[in-house]
Amino acid sequence: MNTSWQPAALGLVGDLRNVFGDRLRSVVAYGPRVEGHDATPLTCLALVSGLGVSDLESLARQTSKWRRNHVATPLVLSDTEFRTSLDSFPLEYGEIIRAHERVYGNDPFEGVAIAQPDLRRACETQIKSHLVHLREGFLESGGQPTAVADLVEDSAPAFTALLRHVAWLSGDQTKERRAATLAGARAAGISDAVVADMISLEHRQDVRTADPARLFPDYIGAVEQLARAVDAWRV
Fold first, then answer.
1. 100-105 and 75-78: which strand pairing?
2. Left if phi > 0, otherwise alpha if psi is -120 to 50, otherwise beta: which for 105?
3. CA 173/CA 161 separation, integer angstroms
4. CA-CA distance, 167 to 60, in Å (whole number)?
5. According to the model, what pLDDT value does residue 209 have?
6. 116-231 CATH
């Protein structure tokens, strides 16, 4: 994995230790920055043994420095909150588990398993919500090409994340971002060609199709297929 993010991550650990001291249990880095997309802010999860209002006040004083260092505000949870929320946020934790790097302390995901029924149910909810969002967004666009293009481009990261969740649901253990996205598409019976364009849009790269609006029919068809596939899934 790309390591250019490490100095920023270590700086964040120093800031967190200044606030929590021995209460800081672990810090992991995850997300696009860790996977080589240097233009995106670094995202991290920090687990602590206790979290109070005074801690939040101390952390709030660090946010402007984190922004300057291209570090997103970290997700800070207590150990107890983390352990008891695995079933509530299986997709969010699943994306972190898929590709993360330990920065400080123990790896909080070592030995952690997210129940397949929780994952399937969350996938179904998110996919169907995404489908409703696309349909409503298209209606609100009035069919104007510029507005439709914005809808397609803005929703691309959520769609590719859904495909990675489906890859994990199917048992695929691929960690590399693009490969995991394509694995999810294949598990759901979605064309690689459609997904390749959406992957390109995810990070605002050039796409084969000059106008993202032209992708909409195939794109929404792919989301409909994804919904059908997850509906039929048995775990």
1. unpaired
2. left
3. 15
4. 37
5. 46
6. 1.20.120
The domain limits of the chain are 6-105, 116-231
CA angle 117, 90, 137 (to 5 degrees): 100
Q: Which residue pairs, CB below 8 angstroms and at least 24 apart, start in 124-130?
A: 124/227, 124/230, 124/231, 126/91, 126/162, 126/165, 127/162, 127/223, 127/226, 127/227, 127/230, 128/227, 130/155, 130/158, 130/159, 130/162, 130/223
First CA to last CA across the chain, in angstroms? 32
The answer for residues whose C-beta is within 8 angstroms of residue 156's C-beta and 6 or more apart is 198, 199, 201, 202
At the top level of CATH, which class does the domain 6-105 belong to? alpha beta
Per-residue pLDDT of the chain (235 residues; tens, 9 = 90+): 567 899 999 999 999 999 999 999 999 999 889 988 888 899 999 999 999 999 999 999 999 999 999 999 999 999 899 988 888 898 888 888 888 999 999 999 888 878 889 999 999 999 999 999 999 999 999 999 999 999 999 999 999 999 999 998 898 888 888 999 999 999 999 999 899 999 988 766 544 445 789 999 999 999 999 999 999 887 6
Which residue matches tokens 């929404």? Answer: 220
pLDDT of residue 234: 75
Distance, CA of 201 to CA of 219 (rounded, Å): 12
Element (H, E) at 25: strand 24-30
User: What is the 8-class DSSP label of residue 222?
Assistant: H
Strand runs labelled E in 69-212: 75-78, 100-105
